[in-house]
Amino acid sequence: MPLGVSPLSLRLPDLGRLARKARRRLRLLVRGEHPAHFFDLDDADLVNRLLRSCGRPSLDGPPRAVAGREGDPARGELVYELRDDVRRAIPLALTPAQRGVYLRWFAEHGWPAAGATVADIMRVLFDQDARPDRGLVASYRVQPEWQAKHPDALTPAGWGPFKRWLAAEYGARGRWLRRAALPADDIAHPTPAGQLAANVVGLFRYTSGLQQAALSVVDALSVAGVRLSLRDVPMLMNRDGRPRAGFDGLEPAPVTILNTGLDMPVPEAYRLAGLYPRPGVYRVAVWWWELEQLPADWLDRGRDVDEIWAPTRFIADALRPLGKPVYPMLPSVRLPAFDPLPKRHFGLSADKFTFLFVFDMNSRLPRKNPLGLIRAFRRAFGRNEPVELAIKVSPQGVYYPEWWRELRSAVAANDVTLIDQNLSRGDLLALVNAADAVASLHRSEGFGLTMAEAMLLGKPTIGTGYSGNLDFMTPENSYLVRYDRGVIAEDIPPYPKGCVWAEPDEAHAAELLRRVVDHPEEARTIAERGRVEATALLSPEAAGRRLRDRLLEIARR
Length: 557
Hints:
The protein is an alpha/beta fold and 557 residues long. It folds into three domains: 24-186, no CATH class; 197-328, Rossmann fold, CATH 3.40.50.11930; 343-538, Rossmann fold. It is built from 22 helices and 14 strands. The strands form three sheets. It has a six-stranded parallel beta sheet, with helices on both faces. Strands 9-8-7-10-11-12 form a six-stranded parallel beta sheet, sandwiched between helices. A two-stranded antiparallel sheet has the order 13-14. Helix 3 packs across helix 7, helix 4 (73-82) packs across helix 7 and helix 12 crosses helix 22 (540-556). The model is unreliable at 1-12 (pLDDT under 50).
């Protein structure tokens, strides 16, 4: 033993670490991969050196274990989905060729808006590396330029030429590229002769009314036997946590149905989706709007579509100035299975009659008019009566601080229950189901989803007798509030100053609120009539027939 070295200072090598390193090198040798051609994600020393050089801490374990334990693939995908500048700069980021460059970019810059972590990014990279295509298919599906140059890349005949083009265009090389195989599930197949098919583009993972609108189209078309390819338009906020798998279709069918807000131009929807608009496709817009008039700078929106399906007659009338054929096409509303919950679960009183109003602050507080409903409610009932009003709104005070102060002040002053939390779809329906009646004193609605859902649940439903909800609400199946026509006094983007909407009669609303409580048998009869009529009108089967008939007409043309 050398002098000056005590037995306690001797350290045995980490045999487990050495064994893992030997196995990794053997695996790479068998795969024929060379460090010059790819970035080894499993090399902890390599990954940690990269992270430390970017001012990040080292991982607290093997990279694969950390990514599997801490990484969220849906959150990690979001970065590459939404950053088209990054996709252009690092086109092979999801593949062995440039994943090291991509990881370094994220470690240096990050993207706080997405909330993604290094573990999220690494989870996506590991998941792609485990696929036979080594990340090429996922990259192709979000690279419009590749889709345009190689429309047949995801076919057995086109896969080889596509890989050779990548090698020539980007200098990608190595055995990983030569051996990258097209998975069977990703092979593009032609639509069988005689079967109707459509591409559906929409905000499938954005928790909102637009998400429900897109899903209702899919539901109706599926019931009608139409073959579908779905494409998500990713959004930064209010993601529902699902990864992109299943929502990455390319536009194989001859008709595309676009489900986005009218405030999103069609080229912008394609850009966000990372989708090349294939020539020769007949494009239909399902556009939602809430006023009689359109903003002047939106009058060119019809330029990029062939026809428009308006969810209600009210919307149809508003969209005719776009210069394209407009067809009223009432949507389907299907209530998914949910677990009923008692009132106390939501902080409501079990021994009071509960009126409920549900809205999203993103839909603009002045249009939804909860303050008018609060005034009408207090006009109808004294504070000592066994009646309560609950208002459900998602917590978005950061974006609308003045409206939040107004709402909270009115709620506190009038002893109204405010439910300001995000709820799952099932819990939201359970809340509507727990209420005794639903009321809306909206100034304008394109459709009125919550009112439709309340009627399907057999709840007495009160609503302003104006705008899109009149396609399913009548004086016989619901309670319609009188109104005067009013003018928007100031710009409330996207609703311009000078446009028309309703000013509900709060005195009449108070009478109807009172009537629902004082005449329960009548309310039950009206609510049951509403349930039966709304079910027949808004069922996926009924909506599917409407959509299929129009698709058949387009096909014949």
